[in-house]
Structure formats: C-alpha cells, structure tokens
Design a protein that fits this description.
The chain is an alpha+beta fold. It is built from 12 helices and 19 strands.
C-alpha cells in the first residue's frame, strides 16, 4: 500500500526511512523539505506492536508530555526552542495540539498523531509504503535511515545484531494508567500546578491532585510491595532506565523514594483542608484535548492489571476510578551507539545505514524526534553531495548528538562496557567559560546561582544555534 506523490519534482534518488514514529516522521519531513524524495516504510497496520493502538504516525504510547517548555530553566525547553527554529514537524504538531500541563508541554494524543500523519501524507516528495522490512534493507538502498525505535521488529533487530557483532542492550519501558476524569472524586482532589506555575497551554491549575496522609501513604507502599507483578523471568537482569522506573521498583529502593519523586507534596495546598499538609500527593495530567482523560504522572508500573485497579483505588479521590487504560510494560532495544555509529549516525559496519531515535540510545519523545531531525538532514546532505556540519555541542541538539556518537562508555563489572540512554540535560552541555556575574552587586548562591547558570547555558545555546544556522544556509529553518 503506498501513496503516489509526484517525484518528478526532484532529480535525486530517494532516501529510504524505516519507521514512522517520532524520529522517522521527523527524518522524512526534513529530507523532503531539503528537496530530496523519501520512501517512508511503516509496518503498521500490516503488523501491529503490542502497545500501538492505531495506524497513525508518531503515535504516543507512554506519556503525553513533552516535559518542561521553559528554555531558561530546562535543557528540554532549550531543545524545544531549537527544534521549532529548525522547522520541526513534531514540535509544530505538539504546539497545535497542546493541552494544559502546568509548566510542561503536553499534547492531545490523537490530534497530535493525526496531524503528523496528515502532514506526512500530503508532502509531495514522500511516498508511504505500509510494509514490514524483514532483515537488512536491500543492498540497492544506498541511503537508509533506520528509525524503528524501541519496538524494532525481531527480524530487523536480529539482522542488525548479526551485522554489528553485538547483541545490543535492552531495558523495559513502563506505561502509566489513564483515568476517566468524571470518575475522580473532586471533593477530595483539586486542581493545581506545583507552585501555581502556568505552562504553554495552562493556567497554573492544570493537574488534579490527590492527597495522602502518612498512614495512607504507608499502606499504599505496602500494597505496591506485596501486589502481584508481571514476571519477566528471563529478563530479570535487564536494567530499567532511571527516568522511567516502575513505581513499585522505586518503592523497593526505599519507602520514602516515591514521596520525594512522583508523589512529592511540595508546592501544593489542599483547598479542602488548607491547614494540613499532605504527606504525599498523586498528580494526574490531562491526556486529551477534551479533558475527559487524565494520566497518573510518574505511575509507570509492571503490576498486573487486577492489582493495579485494587492498589490505585486506595488513593483518596480515585476510589471509584474508571481506568481507560491500565499500565503495562514493553521491551526497548537500543544500540551501543558510541561504538557502533560514526558522528553522522551511520553504522560503521555498513555506512549506508543511518540510525535515528530511541534505537540510538536517546530517551524521550523530543530527544528521539531531535535525532530524527539530525539524521534526516544528514541523509539529505549526503544525497545532495553536500558537507554536513553538526551543530555545536553547546546547543541542546548538538550535546545530545555528541553524547550518542561520542558519549562516555561507563566501565562496570570489572571491564564490561555499558552505554545508557540519556534525556536532554544541562550536564551534557560544555561548561560555561565565563563566570556568572553578580546580581545587584551580590554574589549568587544556591538555587539562585543554579537558575542563573541554566539561563546562561540556554542563552549560549541560542546564540550558538543561530551562528550554526547562518553558516549552513541550505539547512536553515524556513
């Protein structure tokens, strides 16, 4: 099954992109906008995965949040800004379908994926082929972007492993439950964003908050620790990514871990009982544009479905919760990219294959799309015979690319190399070369100093990106 765009508008041979998730869709978009035709291969709905529900491109299967949107305070906010500047389809779709989420950018899932699918389908230089690529792509495909993500089909994953001589690494990614809004008891819960912060589509009262006192919290922890869980017997030693730990795994690390993580009560005041501070709070974030669904923030889980319903209904306000979707688990696979890929994301063992998205070892929706954006531009430049200069490491996208292609490989277990997935963060940025100046003649300390440093890193990133775009006019944003 394929659409039939007019490829006569380009004199270049097509680039093949395998996978139409966040990274693949972004890569195809960038290639086409550089004037190079694309054949986009997507196996759904011919073959569905265990977690996807539709045939739409860029379907979000975990959270609906793109995380913090403030470039002065977070590295992911800087990455948002950079991708908007570079004509990112994924960021355009997110901005068009945002829902209230405090200081975060969250989206209506169906509207977001539908928009990406519509825009890709209407692009005259993109041909869509609904098929599974079994094994390595044909040899005659001389310029390929593999963006199959963490759910790479077994045949292709095995072929890549055979080609590289490595089995790669895997971890489990957990999905948080989604609750029907009308089933939440608002006589116990209330709307508020932490510290009343308003985000890109919010008012400062965007999360539903469910409070627990100490006794309720302790009982909740006990239930998490003793409830029946999914057993992955042969994968017990498979590491989780710390940014997506199941709540029961967090609870196993210490009884106070959750109340200093996704259940932290700070910055919130219960209007039903303002003089009493909650010991812990569960937050739910709007999941669709209608506001009829809310997901339990940070509540990724591997509890069995019956146990989930029983345990989560002990949370005040969720006693009668109707779950539109319960949590679940799926296996994620990624490459040891610093060893296997070159600086242009090409497989060293077979340079015609370029990789993008989570399979490269980045973590997060936006990060995956960002690497797709880079891979697409690299593939287009290669097809046009142009030199591609990577963005500076002082930019968010450049720092992420640098981590993947030249990132530190931690040595553990007496010499076993381990490369771990990474979100965008300021720790990947090169250190500032200039000292942060005093404010009002006073030397900055503590939180004020940390905030000033983040802002300085963001400002430097913005300046570096503009210089890079000006020096690469063919690839500059439209």
């Amino acid at each position: 099954m394929a659409n039939n765009p007019d490829l006569s508008k380009s004199c270049f041979a097509p680039v093949h992109v395998i996978g139409a998730g966040l990274a693949g869709s972004e890569a195809a978009w960038q290639i086409a906008h550089a004037g190079v035709p694309v054949i986009l291969h997507e196996m759904r709905p011919v073959r569905q995965t265990e977690v996807h529900k539709s045939a739409d491109f860029a379907e979000l299967v975990c959270s609906n949040s793109f995380r913090a949107d403030d470039p002065d305070a977070s590295a992911i906010g800087v990455l948002h800004r950079e991708m908007r500047r570079m004509n990112s389809l994924i960021m355009t779709a997110a901005d068009r379908h945002k829902v209230p989420a405090g200081g975060a950018l969250a989206v209506d899932r169906e509207g977001f994926a539908g928009y990406v699918t519509q825009m890709i389908s209407a692009q005259p230089l993109i041909t869509i082929v609904r098929e599974e690529i079994e094994g390595l792509p044909p040899k005659e495909w001389d310029n390929v972007v593999v963006a199959t993500g963490p759910l790479t089909a077994p045949a292709l994953a095995e072929a890549i492993a055979h080609l590289t001589g490595e089995s790669g690494l895997a971890f489990f990614d957990a999905i948080a439950p989604v609750v029907e809004r009308d089933s939440i008891d608002m006589t116990k819960a209330w709307f508020q964003s932490r510290y009343d912060k308003a985000g890109p589509a919010g008012t400062g009262a965007d999360y539903i908050n469910c409070p627990l006192d100490k006794e309720q919290y302790e009982a909740f922890i006990d239930a998490l620790l003793t409830s029946e869980k999914i057993d992955f017997k042969s994968f017990e030693k498979t590491p989780y990514f710390d940014g997506c730990l199941p709540i029961e795994v967090m609870a196993e690390r210490g009884r106070e871990t959750l109340r200093h993580g996704p259940m932290k009560p700070f910055g919130l005041t219960n209007p039903h009982n303002p003089t009493v501070k909650a010991y812990a709070i569960v937050q739910l974030r709007q999941d669709n544009a209608l506001g009829t669904l809310y997901n339990m923030v940070g509540f990724q889980t591997k509890l069995k479905h019956g146990a989930q319903a029983a345990v989560f209904r002990t949370i005040p306000g969720l006693e009668q919760a109707v779950f539109a979707r319960l949590g679940g688990m799926h296996r994620n696979t990624f490459l040891n990219s610093p060893r296997l890929l070159d600086t242009h994301l090409r497989l060293k063992a077979e340079p015609r294959l370029r990789f993008a998205g989570q399979i490269t070892g980045c973590e997060g929706y936006v990060e995956s799309a960002a690497i797709g954006l880079m891979a697409g531009r690299m593939a287009a430049a290669a097809r046009k015979g142009e030199e591609f200069i990577s963005p500076p490491p002082a930019t968010a996208i450049g720092s992420l690319l640098n981590h993947i292609t030249g990132g530190h490989i931690e040595v553990i277990d007496g010499g076993t190399a381990s490369f771990q997935p990474m979100n965008a963060n300021f720790g990947l940025f090169p250190p500032l070369t200039e000292k942060i100046p005093p404010m009002d003649g006073k030397r900055l300390r503590g939180a004020a100093k940390a905030a000033a440093k983040k802002r300085a890193l963001g400002l430097r990133a913005a300046a570096e990106l503009e210089t890079w775009l000006n020096e690469t006019p063919v690839l500059a944003a439209e």
